[in-house]
Design a protein that fits this description.
Length: 359
Amino acid sequence: MPELLREHAESQYAEELDALARSDTRPRPPNWNLSPWAAVTYLMGGALDDGFEVTPKYVGSRRLMEVAVATLVTDRSLLLLGVPGTAKTWVSEHLSAAISGDSTLLVQGTAGTGEESIRYGWNYARLLSEGPSMNALVPSPVMRAMERGKLARVEELTRIPSDVQDALITILSEKTLPIPELESEVQAARGFNIIATANDRDRGVNELSSALRRRFNTVVLPLPETIEAEMEIVQRRVSDMGRALAIPAEPPALEEIRRVVTIFRELRAGVTEDGRTKVKSPSGTMSTAEAISVMNNGLAMAGHFGDGRLKASDLASGMHGAIVKDPVQDRLVWAEYLETVVKERGGWKDLYRACREML
């Protein structure tokens, strides 16, 4: 069997989930694999009573994760809101893995997502030969989650057309999914709930109706407050992905991570870290996820086309691609930042020269 490129969270962290389940003596809601306390510990990391160390999956406010998990205990569903790169999908997947042991009940929101992705569809060959029946019905991930008492995930909710979004209203309010063709319904087993994610940048694309928004408790995931927190996230994710992808390069030095994260934070904020120089912001999202992508691309360059040690020249192409989304406007913004900020910083001459060559 070929080695998987990316395992689901419940498989990748099965040892941690088993250790938490064994040591978890707190009350568990119906059909939950872990108690709410243990689910938050799985996300935030920490040492268990037997000395087992749980690695952190989310670097940020523990209280935010407690609010998110507490929401899923109630009859309200959870909406994770934030700009791109704030770990909404990451948190959604790990919450589902910890609580339900299954993160695969997923609806990916796009402009083309149809109502059958949320409700159900039909096997048309069987429908024509047998007529409407349960055997001809194709359940959606949401329907399967309702039947099994598990969590369903709806990614990029605001990308889904408004009329399709509203198919969730009856499911969330009545905890039932009518099947009028069969004069039947599927009622949600205890433990069922929905975790949805939405992008701050997509406001106004397909705004949620007030009726649907009322059925969600919204938790806003912020960008990392400090450069140290953002560096920790980047270092951890780059290390994990480097091992998974078997990139033949040395782990990046903290100084290289600091330089990339500093540039992204300054372009995002429109001002340098010391507050002395204002800079223009590019049109793209200078998120933590983009910084991780730049580091991984640099490691691939160093490992396959260099000596295995990450250099400024390995990072330059990834930086250019992440920052210059608009070939005219963003190129001017990036060139101005290189001349006014990067060129003047001590020890950054190599990065300045490598990035200038890409312009």
